[in-house]
User: What shape does this take?
Amino acid sequence: MANKSYNHVVLVGNLGKDPEVRALPSGDKVASFTIATSTSYKGKDGQMKENTDWHKIEIWGGLADVAEKYLSKGKQVLIEGRVANDNYESNGVKHYGYKIRVNNLLMLGGKDSSGSGGDNYGQYNTGGKYEADNFDDKSNDSGDDIPF
Assistant: This one.
């Protein structure tokens, strides 16, 4: 096997807080938030148990604008990206961790109870391109009823 590596993450979870968006001196935006993912299992006592993991998420560029506009605490999302080291030193203490750098975002859950955001839910990639879940393209409609 060739010496290649693959760094790809897909997570489905709920936002633990509203995205924090900051503008960099270069003009780029970066959004940061956490999502929770849960795993259920049967414990030794026979009872169902649930384990929740929290993941730090980072989104750059056009996707940061999408996150700022449409995401909020509790919203369910599917994110695709890669694992990036999140190592830093503070007060002489080294901290080690990881974060997920997103290159694809799919907002799940549809319309919320307040009636906002549901019509805009769809899939976004790093270019900020929107692909609506309910896209109805009639541009190739030739008028016949043949399904192929």
In short: The CA atoms of residues 81 and 102 lie 4 Å apart. The beta strands are 9-15, 20-23, 29-42, 48-60, 76-85, 88-90, 93-95, 98-107, 122-125, 130-132. The chain is about 5% helix and 50% strand. Confidence is low (pLDDT under 50) at residues 113-120, 128-142.
